[in-house]
Amino acid sequence: MKIAIINGPNLNLLGKREPGIYGNESFEEYFQQLQQAFPHVEFSYFQHNVEGEIINYLHQTGFSYDGILLNAGGYTHTSVAIRDAIAAIKTPVIEIHISNVYAREEFRHTSLIAPKCVGSICGLGMKGYRLGVEYFVQP
Q1: Which residues of this protein are catalytic (predicted)?
Q2: Cα–Cα distances in Å, from 68 out to 10, 18, 51, 57?
Q3: Which one of 44, 92, 93, 137 is CB 3.0 to 4.6 Å from 68, fit for a cystine?
Q4: Residues with active-site annotation
């Protein structure tokens, strides 16, 4: 089982950025916990602040992985190009958000990528990634 986790803009600052919304843990720390919890899963992790690099990584993993967890950050609400990349690949994608986007600013209430994903998880903190992995590993 191969699962790619892709984080978009500003998520490299997890643990430092707005801890009241995103918590105090870095994603690298959490990623180690995921690897320990699912030793039978081969994970790849990619974070980038540039839209085109996220698209390139979707293309790279989108035909050979069993699942992709994508937290596109602010691109969720603005990127037709990431939406098109998800539509173009065969690997199923789950949209992840650490915060509850529906309890935040109104512009965050619209996801351009959700219609091309198999599901969305939001508002459950970092646990959303674990729930996404569980979806893919459950028979």
Answers
A1: 22, 97
A2: 19, 26, 16, 10
A3: 93
A4: 22, 97
